[in-house]
Every structure is written in C-alpha cells, then in structure tokens.
Design a protein that fits this description.
This protein is of the alpha+beta class. It has helices spanning about 20-25, 25-30, 65-85, 135-140; strands at about 1-5, 5-10, 85-90, 95-100, 100-105, 110-115. It has a two-stranded antiparallel ribbon with strand order 1-2. The chain has a two-stranded antiparallel ribbon with strand order 3-6. This is Cytochrome P450.
Length: about 150
C-alpha cells in the first residue's frame, strides 16, 4: 500500500498513527484561521470536511461512549439553559488548554438563576418534626428485595 502516492507501507512491519490534534488543525480543511474558536463551522454538517474532525475516533477502535456522551452533553446543556442565565465576559480571548480534552483556559462565566415558574401545584412530603414516630412508620415505603 502506498499513501499519498509517496509513502510505501509494508504489511506487518509498518504502523500508522493519526495525530488527532493535528488533524483537527489542518489548514487545508479548516482554512488559515484554524486556531480561532468558530463553532459556526459545524452549523452545516454536510460542509464539514470529510475525515477532518474525529473527536471520538472511528472504525473498530472508536469510542464506545460517543452516543452516550453526546446525549448526556445535550441533556446537561438543556438543563443548564433551563435553570440558569449564562453571561460571558465580552473581552475574553480564547486560550486553548490541552489536557485529556481540549478546553478554554482561564475562561470565566457568570451564572444567574432564572426565575422559576411552576406549572403544577406543589406537593410537599411530611417532615419528621411534624410527625410522631408511629406516624413516620406509616409513611415509610418498604421495597421488596429479591436478595432476602
């Protein structure tokens, strides 16, 4: 096998490693402003260069937690936006820190709770100080156990 019409690869002798951080910074794929944080690049997924972004790898060695991670991130983001208003600092300049994952360095954000509206009546459980001991026993639910 010859890669790029230049590099012969011998079966059983040679190994290939893909440098994912470099792949994600390929100027041929992303343009000269590759180091700029531009999430808009992913607004139209069909325009994202093929094989230019592999945060979870692919093929038989792909991360098995990819779908779970994406669903979990979507759920967390929705819950955060539902309950809090996020206010960023306007003069922040992106500084990417590389650890196990990529993240913004020294990024600070203000979080304010949103005003909560209740669309259903509130039902409060009885508290211990309002009940006598024998009344508490009546409110305790016992769950059957298959262990015994």
């Amino acid at each position: 096998t010859v890669i790029g019409e230049k590099y012969p690869i011998k079966k059983g002798e040679d190994r290939i490693s893909v440098l994912i951080p470099q792949l994600h910074r390929d100027k041929d794929a992303w343009g000269d402003n590759v180091e700029e944080f531009q999430p808009e690049r992913f607004e139209e997924l069909d325009k994202v260069p093929h094989h230019a972004y592999k945060p979870f790898g692919n093929g038989q060695r792909a991360c098995i937690g990819m779908q779970f991670a994406l669903h979990e991130a979507t759920l967390v983001m929705g819950m955060l936006l539902q309950h809090f208003e996020l206010i960023d600092y306007q003069n922040y300049q992106l500084d990417v820190k590389q650890t196990l994952t990529l993240k913004p360095g020294d990024f600070k954000i203000r979080i304010l709770p949103r005003k909560q509206t209740i669309s259903h009546p509130t039902v409060l459980a009885p508290t211990e100080d309002k009940l006598k001991n024998d009344e508490i026993k009546q409110h305790v639910q016992k769950t059957p156990s298959i262990i015994g």
